[in-house]
Design goal:
CATH class: Alpha Beta
Number of helices: 6
Order of helices and strands: HEEEEHHEEEEHHEEH
Structural class: alpha+beta
Number of domains: 1
Strand content: 15-25%
CATH superfamily: Aminohydrolase, N-terminal nucleophile (Ntn) domain
Radius of gyration: 21 Å
CATH topology: Glutamine Phosphoribosylpyrophosphate, subunit 1, domain 1
Low-confidence stretches: none
Helix content: 40-55%
Oligomer: single chain
Strand order of the largest sheet: 8-1-2-9-10
């Protein structure tokens, strides 16, 4: 048998393949794609971060699963991929936020924090003896009345979005955003859109036990995680709206069939 031409190029992070690829970085992206779905939405009233906390057993305490984190008073992050890697990134982000506050006596800008974190991610793609972080983050925050929403990548790439998703349900969620997102959405509408995307992107029942939501409002620039009962209210509203839409579609299809018979 002839040896594969690409064999060996994934042995070290510092080795490019002949076609210019870093296989270890691509493997890290695959780890993110296998993670649970996390979502960020920017509205006219603030930022919404939502995560699916898919539990593998009914014996697991859902409250012990952390996929959404407070980084500073005005910044939060939703994660997908390897949880341990995500926690390390979040701790680094928290340290950077506090360094900025001590050095300059003001909160760190969302853009600056995201770039600092991505600088660290990039370093782990060009040094021997380390591996890329198998986790991606959606970083959202409000600074001086402006909402910012960024998505990081294991390679260190940084992109700003109006609405985005990471994890296994990314494609389904992005289809929902492409269809329904509007720039002038209220915070409540953004929460309902995020829950709609999670409901479409996951194959299990959407409840307050497996969904977590945090918001950062423009009016006070404070990160707040919503209580379970409030999350369930939003979920009930989304599911009720979905049932109404499905009922209307059934009625329309019946009417069309009747007209065709006539």
């Amino acid at each position: 048998m002839q040896p594969l031409q690409s064999a060996g190029y994934d042995r070290a992070i510092t080795v490019f393949s002949p076609d210019g690829r870093l296989f270890q970085v691509e493997y890290a992206r695959e780890a993110v794609k296998r993670g649970t779905t996390s979502i960020g939405v920017k509205s006219s009233e603030g930022i919404v971060l939502a995560v699916d906390k898919r539990t593998t057993s009914k014996l697991v305490e859902a409250s012990s699963i952390e996929k959404i984190f407070k980084i500073d008073e005005h910044i939060g992050a939703a994660t997908s991929g390897l949880v341990a890697d995500a926690r390390a990134l979040v701790e680094r982000a928290r340290v950077e936020a506090q360094i900025n506050k001590i050095t300059y006596s003001e909160p760190i800008r969302v853009t600056s924090l995201s770039k600092k974190l991505c600088d660290m991610l990039q370093l782990y793609t060009q040094n021997g003896g380390v591996r890329p972080f198998g986790s991606a983050l959606i970083i959202g925050g409000v600074y001086n009345g402006k909402c910012k929403l960024f998505e990081t990548d294991p390679s260190g790439a940084l992109i700003e979005y109006k609405a985005t998703a990471i994890g296994s349900g990314r494609n389904a969620a992005m289809d929902i955003f492409e269809e329904k997102y509007q720039d002038d959405m209220t915070l409540d509408e953004a929460i309902e859109l995020a829950l709609t995307a999670i409901n479409e992107a996951t194959d299990h029942e959407t409840t307050s036990n497996n969904v977590e939501i945090a918001v950062i409002k423009i009016e006070d620039e404070k990160y707040v995680k919503l209580p379970q009962d409030k999350v369930q209210e939003y979920i009930d509203a989304v599911l009720a709206e979905k049932e109404e839409e499905e009922a209307e579609e059934v009625e329309e299809s019946e009417d069309d069939s009747e007209e065709s018979e006539e």
